[in-house]
Give the backbone structure.
Amino acid sequence: MFKFFKRVKTVVGSEMNAMLDKAEDPVKMLEQFMRDMAEDIREVEEAVAKQIANEKMLKRKSDDAQAMVEKRQSQAEQAIESGNEDLARRALEDKGEHESQAALLKESWERAKLDSDTLRTKLDEMKKEYQQMTLQKDSLKARAESAKTRTKMNRTMSSIGSDDSKQGFERMEEKVMQFEAEAETSEDLSKASRTLDDEFEELENKNGIDDELAALKKKMGKQ
């Protein structure tokens, strides 16, 4: 039942860091430590409960034996007062047997009580250790999560400024410039492909607008 304390010393001591270094996931390993500790505590609680029950049983038997001793003593005195020495003698003989039983039972009860007190003290120590480990686990868990986040951010930032990222960005810029050049070229080709009739039609349209504008100004007296 005291394997718990060996485990606590391992976890709390310098060996814990070595274990966590080897673990793929320190947080999961810490959780497993806590589950093992909780299981050990439950086992010790059961042992303590059984020991206390045994102590109470021995105490009850010891008290019963002592009560019988006092009863036989009282009965012997009563028999003497009644003049019945034979009855008094038999009461005293039975009293002696109960005294021996009471002495043995008392010794057994005192030993059981000492064991119960020791186990209760150990159990209290285990629970305090568990509480301390819970606080330490929460702190280590937070540190582990923070370290993971920082590592992820650093990797992301380093990838942003890497040569691959710059080259990818430059390729996209070149692609956009190529699209722009193609658009300008298509516009030039469109202009070059205009026929003579297209130009005269454009001129007639322009003259038509000019005539319409002059007529409107004349009508409104704005000439």
User: Anything to note?
Assistant: Confidence is low (pLDDT under 50) at residues 1-5. The chain has two domains: 3-160, 166-219. The chain is about 90% helix and 0% strand.
